[in-house]
Design goal:
The chain is an alpha+beta fold and 354 residues long. Helix 2 packs across helix 4 and helix 7 packs across helix 8. The longest helix has 25 residues.
């Protein structure tokens, strides 16, 4: 355990600079809900069947989104149709690209600054504030097994194909990893979730890093796999988790999918994973000052500042030092006002008991 305790500063940094504010969460939720309404209205206007359900996915659903100065937020909101409802005018099943195009057309609204776009795995709606909502299109297939029980499968419209997939399983995987604490919402009583977000924050702490580093789901998987809990010490938990991740990525950059055993999130030699590994290496090198015998709180704060590209830690440590100094001043002033006799004082009353 590191001698210099920066748990207070680390939790403060998470609360003030990493965790999304209530206002940001509310705005994103409102945008998401407006998009859902617009999609249903557009489909109804065109005479197409409505989706069976919507389901938020990714970091938004897992509550692992982090603050971004440029509002570069990615909200995933899957839309699920019954397979029988995705047909053309001739009764033929829609292809994957056709299904995304139908959803894209339904989202069109002249009041919006940007039109929705068909992407490889989703329909994307960009907003002027900087963030966007990705809408993956799924179809639900219901069949019967050998014993007559209903079996429900989900296929994602990916490229030109329908691929078996359901991102909600990834959300459930992360919820299970964090446990009941995550399900309480944004209270962040879970150290694992705080470490996940702090790691993502570091990975995107420089503008130039954002497009080079690994994806959020890869980082989340690495944190879950190599998490080192440290009761009451988020700073130590973060550093020790980073050490474990770095050691693994030196050995292999392959990252397995958290749900599908036959798939990988990243393969050997993945450039984004290698970049993230090297950033971790630089951060851990900077934090070696914490192990020096003469390390001070100022040195520790400066090191964490460099890691996260901020001045938060040193500012908080300086603020606490100034507050502690100010508490001593009244006592020192009181002591300075006291006078003491220069010779012994002879009592002016008789000795003995009264």
């Amino acid at each position: 355990m590191t001698t210099i305790d920066c748990n207070k500063e680390m939790k403060g940094y998470h609360a003030d600079e990493v965790n999304l504010s209530n206002d940001d969460q509310t705005e994103m939720r409102n945008r998401r809900d407006s998009g859902r309404t617009r999609l249903k209205n557009g489909l109804a206007k065109a005479g197409h069947p409505l989706p069976k359900e919507f389901s938020s996915q990714g970091s938004y659903a897992m509550r692992t989104m982090v603050q971004d100065d440029a509002c570069d937020y990615d909200i995933d909101d899957g839309v699920y149709f019954d397979k029988e409802d995705l047909k053309d005018a001739n009764g033929n099943y829609l292809g994957a690209r056709e299904a995304r195009t139908r959803a894209c057309n339904a989202l069109k609204d002249d009041r919006l600054a940007y039109d929705a776009m068909v992407k490889t795995n989703c329909v994307r709606q960009q907003y002027p504030d900087g963030y966007h909502i990705d809408i993956p299109v799924y179809r639900t297939i219901c069949t019967k097994d050998f014993w007559g029980n209903e079996v429900v499968e989900y296929e994602l419209a990916s490229g030109d194909d329908w691929v078996k997939s359901d991102a909600r399983k990834v959300t459930r995987w992360y919820n299970d990893a964090v446990g009941s604490e995550l399900k309480a919402g944004q209270s962040d009583t879970s150290q694992l979730r705080r470490i996940t977000k702090l790691t993502k924050k570091m990975a995107r702490s420089r503008v130039a890093w954002k497009k080079k580093t690994s994806s959020g789901i890869c980082i989340s998987k690495l944190v879950v796999d190599h998490f080192v809990a440290r009761l009451g010490r988020d700073d130590d938990a973060l550093r020790d988790t980073w050490k474990a991740i770095k050691a693994q990525l030196v050995f292999s950059q392959r990252i397995g999918h958290p749900v599908y055993a036959d798939k990988n999130l990243a393969e050997e030699g993945d450039e984004g994973v290698i970049f993230f590994r090297d950033c971790l290496g630089e951060a851990l090198e900077t934090l070696k000052v914490l192990d020096e015998y003469d390390c001070t709180r100022k040195k520790a704060g400066d090191a964490w500042d460099k890691v996260f590209n901020t001045d938060y830690f040193s500012a908080q440590i300086a603020k606490d030092a100034a507050a502690a100094k100010s508490l001593l001043q009244p006592a020192a002033a009181a002591a300075a006002g006291l006078t003491f006799p220069s010779r012994p004082v002879v009592p002016n009353k008789s000795s003995g008991f009264a």
